[in-house]
Amino acid sequence: MLTGKQKRFLRSKAHHLNPIFQVGKGGVNENMIKQIGEALEARELIKISILQNSDEDKETAAEAFTAGTGAELVQIIGNTIVLYKESRENKQLQLPS
C-alpha cells in the first residue's frame, strides 16, 4: 500500500501526464486491462480517462484496473484515474519512504 507521502509524490509526477487510455462506450474489458498492465510495466505511472459516453462509472473502472493489473490507485480526479505500479525491469520512479 502507498503512504500519503508517496501518493502526494505520485500525484505531482502525474500532473503533467496525458491520459494514454480512454474508457468509452465498450467499458472495461480484458484486452484493455492487459494493455494497461503492459503500459504500467513500461511507464509505472499512467492516467486513464473515462469518457462521457462510458457505461462504467469511474470507481468501478478503477477497481477493475487495480484488480486486473495489481496496480495501486493513486487518485481519481474528475473523470481521470491515476494508476501506479512499480516496474520489474524498467524502474524509473524512486518513491519517498
TrEMBL record:
Residues forming coiled coils: none
SMART domains: CRS1_YhbY (SM01103)
Domain called CRM: residue spans: 1-96
InterPro entries named in the record: RNA-binding_CRM (IPR001890), RNA-binding_domain (IPR051925), RNA-binding_YhbY (IPR017924), YhbY-like_sf (IPR035920)
Pfam families, alphabetized: CRS1_YhbY (PF01985)
Keyword RNA-binding: yes
Gene3D superfamilies associated with the record: YhbY-like
MF GO annotations: RNA binding
Protein name as it appears in the record: Ribosome assembly RNA-binding protein YhbY
